[in-house]
Amino acid sequence: MDVVRAHAASLSRDMSPARSSRALRALVRADAVRGEDVERNPELFFAAHRAMALRANDLGPGFWIRFTVHYNLCAGTVVALGSRAQRARLRGMATRGELGCFALTERLAGVNSGLVVRTTADWDHARKVFVINSGGGDGGVKNWISQGLVADVAVVVADLRVGGKSRGPHGFLVRLRQGMTRRLTRGVSVGDMGKKTTGNDLDNAWIRFDDVAVPHDALLSKYGGVDRKTGEYVTKKEGVRTMDMIGQRLYTGRVAVAQAALVFVRRLLDDTKRYSDQKMCTMRGASPALSDVPQLRALYQEGYATLDRLDAYVAGCEKELCTHLRAKTIPSAALTQAIAVAKIKAVETAIDLAFRLKQEVGSYALMSGTGFDNTDFLQCCKFAEGDSRILSQKLARDCFTAFQQNDLESATGVKSEIELDLCQRIDEVIKDARRANPRIDKIEAWDCAWRDVYRLAEVMCERIMHERAFKAETHRSKL
Ligand SMILES: Cc1cc2nc3c(=O)[nH]c(=O)nc-3n(C[C@H](O)[C@H](O)[C@H](O)COP(=O)(O)OP(=O)(O)OC[C@H]3O[C@@H](n4cnc5c(N)ncnc54)[C@H](O)[C@@H]3O)c2cc1C
Questions:
Q1: What region holds the Acyl-CoA oxidase/dehydrogenase middle domain (predicted)?
Q2: The CATH number of the domain where 223 resides is what?
Q3: Residue 310 resides in a domain
Q4: Least packed by Cβ within 10 Å: which of 106, 175, 232, 458?
Q5: End of a domain among 238, 260, 283?
């Protein structure tokens, strides 16, 4: 970890994308964190993410996103979905200091669409290659791909088609750039997404694939692949879909994002408090420090207490997830739900605290280098690895489905009076909407109850955090 911390400390502000990507190449070559660590040493993997997040207050979101895209989304997906030989390629990539990106999002698809994508990968049995295409129009063009303008390889999520039959989204490890000059692979075109309000040390690309032929071993095939001899699709593990395994990296990502948001806002509180402790105010009698004005003092107290509670909660999720990562097992529905809660609560709380702190510290909050200039880091946390709104919708939908099925056993279902009450209200609103318009579709009817839907998600978040804190406390007192 010392090498990672030293590397994080050495990063300078206002880096160009070229300099920032060179800095990541150097870290990859140093081999202090390895692509494989997400499974072999997950504690190091998360600690390294936190070390990088500690610099986000002065660097902005760019380098942290670069880091997590390379280690979690790209290398992490190869580790989760790749065969032994494919995982071994990560070693060569590290020695050469090669960078990876993760191409999931399209103009009309992505995490929000449940990973369903328009990009296709057709198995061409005669040539023994997959042919990747973005398709007509621009709906299937990958966009917002972090590091896409410099990455050597990409994990491309595409709909695998074998003999014309769709097998759903699969991951392909595709070489984007070739040789010493890093020229683009034939059929790949890229462009810049344009200047952003923040994180311009990170390149974001759109990527188009036109008849890009990739070899048989580009398909990350641990769970499903194509038999090279017969050209048939083969399922390697019954009941495990490749798409679900792509989702696994979103769980590690969600824990890393939750921790990054908490690290960011704690540092914002620390730095601001250091300033307000020595900033004197007039007409304050015996307690002239800005930190002592009642609203700020209360905010610091509340802020640190809330962060302590959230840190402990997310650490609990991390610990449980690490056990699964090491054992290569799939987290339970309850842990998946707890991780979604970690992401929603950590990010929303961080945004709320940062905003309220900004209102209370006068001119300081406008100064460059205070961290307030980089609070859009939290904005990035909000939509990364599953948008907080979409996660909230899923929490509420799972609970409501259990309610409709009268399923009291489900780990993700109704667990309190208030949740039951909210489910009943949602049910009534949906029935009213159907009575008013019998042809109303499912989504429109559900949207009619949107306030109660988000309220239900919020109530569930609080209940789940409380339950897990209680369990942890009971466990500690038994020891
Ligand atoms: C800096 C940056 C880096 C990125 N890096 C990558 C990358 O490396 N690889 C990659 O694949 N993608 C990447 N992305 C894409 C990112 O994952 C998407 O931007 C994100 O999924 C949100 O999609 P969107 O911006 O199109 O939101 P939109 O779909 O336009 O939605 C906007 C907002 O509407 C709300 N919303 C949308 N749909 C629903 C719904 N069904 N119900 C309720 N509310 C809803 C949400 O609050 C959402 O934030 C990156 C994006 C950015 C900005």
A1: 101-212
A2: 2.40.110.10
A3: no
A4: 232
A5: 238
Express each pLDDT in 392-405 by its tens digit: 999 999 999 999 99
Cβ 115 under 6 angstroms from ligand 1: no
Give the C-alpha separation, 3 to 225, whole Å.
Answer: 38
Report which residue type is found at 178: Q
Task: Give the model's pLDDT for residue 114.
Answer: 65
Identity at 21, one-letter amino acid code: S
The residues near 343 (Cβ < 8 Å, ≥ 6 apart) are 254, 255, 257, 258, 385, 386, 388, 391
Q: Which of 238, 266, 299 is the last residue of a domain?
A: 238
Please tell me if the CB atom of residue 389 comes closer than 6 angstroms to any atom of ligand 1. yes
pLDDT tens digit string along 146-162? 999 999 999 999 999 99
- On whether both 83 and 137 belong to a single domain, the answer is no
pLDDT at 244: 75
Q: Are 29 and 97 in contact (CB under 8 A)?
A: yes
Q: Whose CA is nearest to atom 22 of ligand 1?
A: 383
- Cα 112 to middle of ligand 1, angstroms: 7
Least confident span in 156-160, 231-235, 245-249 = 245-249
Domain that holds residue 16: 2-96
Q: What are phi and psi of 220, to 5 degrees?
A: -75, 110
Q: Residue 424 C-alpha to ligand 1 middle, in angstroms?
A: 31
Residues 69, 193: one domain?
A: no
Query: Total structural domains in the chain?
Result: 3
* 36 Cα: distance to centroid of ligand 1 (angstroms): 27
In a domain, 17, yes or no: yes
Ligand 1 centroid–CA 383 distance in Å is: 5
